[in-house]
Amino acid sequence: MTLTWRSITSRQRGFDSVGSAFNPSRTARHYHMPLKSLADQATTYRVRFCIGLLAVCILAPLAARDSARALSTMYNAPALWLPEDMPVRKQYDDFSELFQGQDVLMIGWDGAKIGAEEVDQAAQALLPLVQPTSDRPAYLEGVSSGQRVFDVLTSPPTSFSERATRARLKGSLVGEDGEQTIVLATFSGAGNLNRQEVLAQARQLVSDRIGVPEDQIYTAGPPTDGALVDAEAQGSIDRFTLPSVIVGALICVFCLRSIVLTAIIIIVAVIGQGMSLAMVLYSGIEMNAILIVLPPLVFVLTASAGIHLCNYYRDAMCSDPTIDPTAATRQAMQAGILPCWLAATTTIIGLGSLGLVRLVPVSAFGFIAAGSVFGTLLLLLLLLPGAMQWHGKRHRIKHRAALAKANEEDIDPLPVEKWRSNIGHAWEAFAARFMKYPIIVVALFTVITAVAASGLPQLTTSVNIPRMFPENSRIRTDYAWFEEHIGPTINAEVVVQFPPDSMPDPIDRFRLVRDVDDHLRSTELVGGVFSARSFLPSPPSKKSRSIRSTVLEANIRKQLEDPDSPLQDAGYIAIDKKGNQLWRISFRFPFDEAIDYRTEFQRVQAEVIPILESAGEGISPQFTGGVPMTTESQDVLLQDLFRSFLAAFGIVAIIMMLLLRSFTGGLVAMFPNLFPTITLFGTMGLLETPLDIGSVMTASVALGIAVDGTIHFLTKFQSQSRKGKARTEASLAALHKCGPAMWQTTAVCAISPLVYGLSDFQPTQRFAFMMFGLLLAALVGDVLLLPALLASPLGRFLTPKTPKQKPATTR
């Protein structure tokens, strides 16, 4: 069946033509069915309600149990969010398989000095975590420290002087003063899966052994990053979900003036929240910081659909004080079900478009959220009609006099609803003033949108973990301590690859690695360089033939070839499956939000590649580690966000064109829906505020939500236009009908997630503020911009044409 605005509005004519003298017999005649069909309809609604209630009884325990199980799988590893077939991810996986030290926890405190007994004591305190027990596997693969490496380098066969050793370890294991050092703990696979517990145990063990309070023991590295993100992400759900639901329920009760209808909406929304988390478990993926915004989003979208349906019912009840509750329910369902399905479809398209994003959690978010929207709408359609009937029968006699007075005096039915009535009248009066100057209003919104759009090219993204926390957070404090006392903390890696037939002499290979190492040490903003160069003395010149040079070269060659040498134990040389020898060079950048890591990393690449290219054919570098993985994730996030939004916009625009049966009309109708996204995201670009993992999904979500209001508004506008009203008059009438539902959904859907803005976890906080801003902007677009468009010359493309009536003109 082809859906057109004519087919939508034809289903509404009975509703819109209902007068104050509406009675049951006229209801029956209007629908061309005998009066007893209302009884049949009531039975149908009761059966549907029972089916919905049964579904609730089945889903509620599943939602409660499996949402908790899903949260228990919380594991954040941004490096693993990229698809496995991407070159940068494949290089990282290969690197992690060949070399140790990717999941290293750095532990430090103010008294950790070279030569201090506490350093060895702290390392020994962690040894119980290296050994498996009867009830757990080994949580650590090994423990080391700057002191141990210092002792190795100052002992035979290297026998470096203490001064030379301090210089070699400076910035990686020893601070600028040559004294401050750290303890290193390498996490096992089991330790990573239980990193919150292991991190707490490690701090406690070290604290008890050396007598330093836990809050004065500082940690950094991937394990502590992941543990803190896991804790904050789960804490956001634990602390703010219930308050958000309570706030939403209170606003919903105030707006709908019905505990029964509110209860149905909130129950379905809460079950939708739980089932969205359960679907994460069923899909086999781990919970993470991106997916934690699923519950508030599902709550928002469910509440929006429920409030729109209830407002159709409320309009039917207010239109006639004697209307039968079943008839009113049928009126509401026939008038609202198609717009609600269309609105849900556009929302699902917006969410589903996130499936185009290559970051696994984002694409999973889109599909799960889309499925949740579909499921909660089905539940609402099963439960709400029965609840509407029960609500109507209970209040029919009580409200009859108030409804009659409301129709006679054009006031809101109940005194307690004056606030809602005043808000509605304020919107209408405000919009009416705007519609006196429609061209100016449209031009003003166009200029605002254009100015904001100029910021879109400047938009950036960030998946940097320390930036997910406020300035005074524990992770920021710990990173600042390491930056001050040890050196840079943001790691990157260069792996020099030697094919079997290229530069066969290991001494020559070491010379080349030394040259790269020395170059990195002299590069601005690069520190913490660590490689085979840190373990071995510089080889003699090739031209030197002295006995001392011969002995030195033999000593270096022995350590390079001895599998038990300190260098080999450190794991900085490996052989891949193809027989290539790989030499690892680690380096770090400072943690500074002012640093453009992409530019600095590209500068390092530009300087290292020529050194290796000049060494001979086949020798090549591989760049991996935290910096390239982060920058690649940010690039993918931004590119795919743009692609997914374009896809969603294109599909929704085509749907609008088909419904309006006008190419131009579809494009015009999309302007109010683009306004929120372009304005907020463009402003973020102008203010140089990066998108984080909490706000990146909101663009496509906002498009779907904005179209929701547009569809309901245009449905009413089309209906009023077919009655012969001019565009301005039809717009005001549509606003009168749809305005309450619009501001009510905005109030519930914008304010209830705002509770998450109290979180210290930046992605959750940013999501709350972004949703609030986008929903508010969407309301402005639908209440001010859309009526102005309809009253302007562009409105003729949105006005229905009938054989008997020419398009209405603006009066």
Automatic annotation (TrEMBL):
Origin superkingdom: Bacteria
Keyword Transmembrane helix: yes
Cellular localisation: Cell membrane
The keyword Cytoplasm belongs to this UniProt entry's keyword annotation: no
GO CC, one annotated term: plasma membrane
Domain (Membrane transport protein MMPL) ranges: 146-404, 614-806
Spans traversing the lipid bilayer: 45-64, 245-271, 291-314, 335-356, 362-384, 437-456, 641-660, 667-687, 693-715, 767-790
SUPFAM superfamilies, A to Z: Multidrug efflux transporter AcrB transmembrane domain
Keywords for the protein's UniProt record, in alphabetical order: Cell membrane, Membrane, Transmembrane, Transmembrane helix
Topology of the protein relative to the lipid bilayer: Multi-pass membrane protein
Gene3D superfamilies assigned: Multidrug efflux transporter AcrB transmembrane domain (1.20.1640.10)
Protein name: Membrane transport protein MMPL domain-containing protein
Species of the source: Rhodopirellula baltica SWK14
